[in-house]
Amino acid sequence: MNGPTRARIEAKTLRTDRWWLYPATTFVVFAAFIVYATWRAFSGDNYFSEPYLSPFYSPCLTDSCTSGASDFGQPFSWWQLSPALLILIFPLGFRMTCYYYRKAYYRAFWLSPPACAVAEPHGKYSGETRFPLILQNVHRWFWYAAVVVALILTYDALLAFGPAEGESDGIHMGLGTVLMVANVVLIWLYTLSCHSCRHITGGRLRHFSKHPVRYQMWTFVSKLNARHAQFAWYSLFSVALVDLYIYLLASGAFDDPRFF
Asked: What are the transmembrane regions (predicted)?
């Protein structure tokens, strides 16, 4: 874009590298996840294979939930749509308002701008000061909801060590258990590495020396924050993989390999 204080460069960009590769890859991967998650959320079936519950449907809170899937009761018995639609708004809201994801999909989907030193096609720019983008400021509140969701998924991962249908009592572990534990670890890493978490632990402090505990928490979160983008993608893949695995188990595609 030309301006009174900018050089008159008519080219869209002078970059000679493959700057378009990152936004193009982000577009394909993120769009694929959106399509898959939408299909699974509205399907309303094949989300529970004892003792595994899909993270897309946890907690399952309606009376249409598969038997054994409601670990926290069914307080929304009046809900007629897929049980996932009650839950996904919270993790989805957390991810869609995430500072990293905002940068990723602004570049990939809205081309605003598609890359550094590349002109964007939009004539005006208002940032996140107007509706609907001003709603991105609710991210810190979605973080609290994301912590609750992470706690519930942790509980589900512990239940995944329980016996499957037809097995005796005791501790058991299958491939699904390993996947659910790995997923919840990545979910926690993504949640705790969030910029909002960093502000909550150490923000508004004038003297770290007077708050040693919060300083240690802030230091830990800051180290995680440096890899926030990686955790964002890893956890996105893991949650989809766990749901797909449970879907295949529940639909009878194969049996869960059990280690003990």
From this structure: 20-39, 78-101, 141-164, 170-190, 231-250
Q: What is the DSSP secondary-structure string of 8-54? A: ---SS----S-TTHHHHHHHHHHHHHHHHHHHHHHH--S-EETTEE-
Q: What residues does 258 pair with on adjacent strands?
A: 174
| Exposure of 56 in the CB half-sphere (CA atoms within 13 A) | 30
Full-model pTM? 0.91
Torsion of CA 177, 184, 25, 110, to 10 degrees: 140
Q: What is the pLDDT of residues 179-206, one digit of tens each?
A: 999 999 999 999 999 999 999 999 888 8
Give the residue from 230, 188, 220, 203 showing the smallest Cα distance to 94.
Answer: 188
Which pLDDT does position 2 carry in this prediction?
A: 52
Q: What percent of the chain shows pLDDT beyond 70?
A: 95
Which class for 86: exposed (0-12), middle (13-18), buried (19 or more C-beta within 10 A)? middle
Whole-Å CA distances, 142 to 56, 93, 149, 152? 17, 6, 10, 15
Residue found by looking up tokens 């869960």 in the block: 256
Classify burial at 60, counting beta carbons within 10 Å of its beta carbon; exposed 0-12, middle 13-18, buried 19 or more: buried
